[in-house]
Amino acid sequence: MSASQFGQLKQQTPISRDPVYNSMVRRVGDRIAYVAGPDMPNAQWEFVVFEDDEQINAFAMPGGKVAVYTGIFKVAKTDADLAIVMGHEVAHVAAGHGNERMTQQLLVAGGALALQFGTSDMDSDQRALLMAAYGAGASVGVMLPYSRYHECEADEIGLIYAAKAGYDPRTAIPFWKRMAAQSNGAPPEFLSTHPADSTRIRKLNELMPKVMQLYQNR
Ligand SMILES: [Zn+2]
Predict the structure, then answer these.
(1) CA nearest 80: which of 185, 5, 147, 173?
(2) Contacts of 73 (CB under 8 A, 6+ apart)
(3) What are phi and psi of 144, to 5 degrees?
(4) Parallel/antiparallel/unpaired status of strands 58-61 and 46-50
(5) What does the H/E/C string look like for 107-124?
(6) Distance, CA of 181 to CA of 188 (rounded, Å)
(7) For a pLDDT cut of 90, what percent of the chain falls above it?
(8) What pTM value is reported for the model?
(9) Average pLDDT over residues 4-19
(10) H-run or E-run covering 60
(11) CA 151 to ligand 1 center in whole angstroms
(12) 65-69 and 46-50 strand pairing
């Protein structure tokens, strides 16, 4: 299902041929895939750079399909920066969040009944977004936010991946702060679903001793 969705996206979205961006994404992607491999034994990894400077965004899909939009390079300047984003996105998939989110998307397609009974564990922001998506007549391709719990989990697993892959996990703190600063007024797409608020930064800081040990002892 996601392989064909990804194939569709690749046909609909211009693909960047920029050699610097592509080699950066492949280099980091290969290392993240290597350390995430045991968690995703059936993955057929594929890394794509989509040409869209307005999208400060990235995502991963079940099956190891990973896409980065060129806009992300406004904030991700180094391999380590990119590893923070890609590690986080791959972590969502490795932890099975993608399937759960896809279920949420099916709920959108399913209609009002699902909205009534399927959203009880969402917070009000998510419910509002889901309602908006439903109201817009959305059926496929709507990027719904993950729950706060899933964000925390993806941050932790993503940092572990980055550290094991040889990228300094401390990069995450200034990276997310830069991401937040990037949003003059309207937050970029990625930030709207990944708020770099003080709670998140505090939790990232709490994870540092553990992941720094992984990074230093690898
Ligand atoms: Zn996330």
Answers:
(1) 173
(2) 21
(3) -90, 145
(4) unpaired
(5) HHHHCHHHHHHHCCCCCH
(6) 10
(7) 51
(8) 0.79
(9) 89
(10) strand 58-61
(11) 5
(12) parallel
Tokens of 72: 């992300």
Calculate the alpha carbon distances from 99 to 62, 63, 71, 218 in Å. 7, 11, 26, 31
C-alpha 120/C-alpha 106 separation (Å) is 16
Using the predicted structure, report yes or no on whether residue 141 has a pLDDT greater than 50. no
- Position 144 confidence tier, pLDDT thresholds 50, 70, 90: low
Exactly one of 46, 89, 151, 206 is catalytic; name it: 89
Inter-axis angle of helices 97-110 and 79-94, to 10 degrees?
A: 60
Q: Map out the domains of the chain as residue ranges.
A: 2-97+146-216
Helix, strand, coil % in the chain, rounded to nearest 5: 65, 5, 30
54 is catalytic: no
Sheet architecture: strand order including 65-69: 46-50, 65-69, 58-61
> For residue 96, is it left (φ>0), alpha (ψ between -120 and 50) or beta?
left
155 Cα to the center of ligand 1, angstroms: 7
What separation in Å is there between the alpha carbon of 146 and the centre of ligand 1? Answer: 6
Measured in Å, residue 75 CA sits from the centre of ligand 1 at 16
Q: Report the separation in Å between the CA atom of 180 and the middle of ligand 1, taken as the mean of its atom positions.
A: 14
